[in-house]
Amino acid sequence: MRTALLIATDTYHDETFGALRAPHRDAAELATVLSDPAIGAFAAELLLNQPVQRLRERLDGLFAEAVDDDMVLLYLSGHGVKDRTGRLYFATEDTRADRLPSTALSAEFVRQLMDDSLAGRVVLWLDCCFGGAFPVDLSAKGEDVDVVARLSDGRGRSIMTASTAIQFAYEPSGDVRGGTRTSLFTRALIEGLRSGAADLDGDGEITTRELYGYVHDHVRRSMPGQTPTSNDSVVGTLAVARAANRSAGVFVPEVRLTTEPDLGEAAFVRDFLVWQGRIWRVGAWSEEARVQAHGPHAVNRAGTLLAAGGGDDEVAIWETEGHPDTWQEIVVAGGSVPWGTRLSFSHDDTMLALSGDGAPTVWDCRDWTAVGLLPGVLTDASSVVFNPMSPLVVVDSSLVQLTLFDLPGWNASLVRGGAELTFERFSPDGRLGAFHRMRDTVVLDLEDWTTLVEFRHDGGHTRRCAFSPDNRYLVTSSTRGLRVLDAATGKPVQVLAEVGYGCVPVFSPDGRYLVAGLNDGLHVWRFAGG
Predict the structure, then answer these.
(1) Residue 301's CB: how many other CB atoms inside 10 A?
(2) Which of 46, 422, 423, 460 could make an S-S bridge to 478, C-beta 3.0–4.6 Å?
(3) Mean local confidence (pLDDT), 4-14
């Protein structure tokens, strides 16, 4: 028998423990995947916001009733805390921060149940969000004691945790009362199992070691400061699921919306796709309206403004509230937008930059007047691109240097020689930057400008690229075609088109679709997992 118990706590009577956004949805979505007969085939039970005694009794029954042929999977999501001696506890709805031994679920208790159980296979996944730094370890030897690691004592046991003993487990930032989203760790679990992508050797089964490898890489790409850990005590391999939905490709063709050979840049505005003046409803792909918006596009973070080439090759701004039939052109800001230029809004929607064709122009979005650039600092700039998530901007200079500025004062925070580098794209989280050289793309960590990975193209000149919203993939266009690469390793994943030079790949904000204008029209690919 395959039994999965998922315990999630996101509300607490003790205000010491902050409310969490992810656990409820995390556990519910993961339970659905685990109980899918084609994937996990588990009998899944979800316990949400239960008192500690109820959880102790249910866990005791779960492990005591299991027999040798059974697989028991336990998932815990919520706050994890340590006491002064380094012992780990899982906070429940009635846990008191000053009475952990009697009111919290002890990791030692869970370990003892696992050790005493007759279950032949036990899998434990811990997604502990701490909401702050772990307390200083006060163990007798002065070393950090990871109680979670000690849970692995016993046969056929596999433990995976969201972070090490001294790290946070991160939730997406934002108001607790806002829309819910899953944690990085559990999102990786769900996607790896549901898509079959965690079947790393392609044999149709997902083992605990393969799943850990997938989750580790996924979390580290999105949050380098968080390191999932694994501790297996397994003879042979332990298969936890089947790769029922593994696709031969990450992206599958969805539709070709036009047949005109045009390489213009598309943009997603809420539920609509805009390309060369035509607007389609995403998913249905019905053409809804037309507008005089051509060339490069930029949409502000609020999704209320569209900037693009208007009449006479000037930059025009449209208000995009409501149906596209009601979109209104509110201002023509001047400038010129031939092929190769780009537009970008600042992270707070207060400025708009046009660059790529001579000297860049920056406008104040409050009155659409040009912003005066600092003499000697930006006078020689050839492009200005705003970071989508923070008050930073990268500037390419005709003086062959790249400069990172802090807004609003345009204070130079870092300067690097850029003789071979041309800035192309920020990652969606704003932490990474993709730069072009003649024959490859380089991804740099913008905090210290260290090179993370290089994508070589075997002689194919690279021009444009796009990160997927989860930072897992980088799609590049070059004379070698439109290609999907693994953003962490640079390894090729898929070829979408044999000829891609000049096209501009664009992802939908939710990552479900990728679009690019090619020589035979505008193509849409749908994310199929991978």
Answers:
(1) 13
(2) 460
(3) 89
